[in-house]
Design goal:
The protein has 88 residues and is α+β, with helices and mostly antiparallel strands. The protein contains two helices and three strands; from the N terminus they run H-H-E-E-E. It has one domain. The longest helix has 18 residues. The model has no long low-confidence stretch (mean pLDDT 79).
Length: 88
């Protein structure tokens, strides 16, 4: 297959996926949901891969995103040490 035909097939495939790919939606995450996500991540992460044994969520801080409707992010502080960023 020559490059022109290959390019046309790829473009057609991408357009088909965009057209029939379904609806994509998102919603904002609350502070409590961010806390739960990090707690679940801590519980699911094998202690061999990270030194998180005995780690707990200490505090969740929200940082506003500013202009253009950017909701910002949560900085989840861990106890005894560490942090995780969760997008709003």
């Amino acid at each position: 297959m020559d490059m022109g035909k290959l390019r046309n097939v790829v473009v057609l495939l991408v357009l088909t996926l965009l057209f029939f790919g379904g609806e994509v939606s998102a919603r904002f995450v609350s502070e409590e949901e961010a806390r739960i996500v990090v707690q679940n991540w801590i519980e699911m992460t094998p202690t061999e891969s990270l030194a998180i044994e005995g780690t707990e969520v200490r505090e969740v801080m929200h940082f506003a995103g500013g202009s253009h409707g950017n909701p910002g992010y949560y900085l989840v502080l861990l106890d005894p040490n560490g942090w995780v960023i969760v997008p709003c």
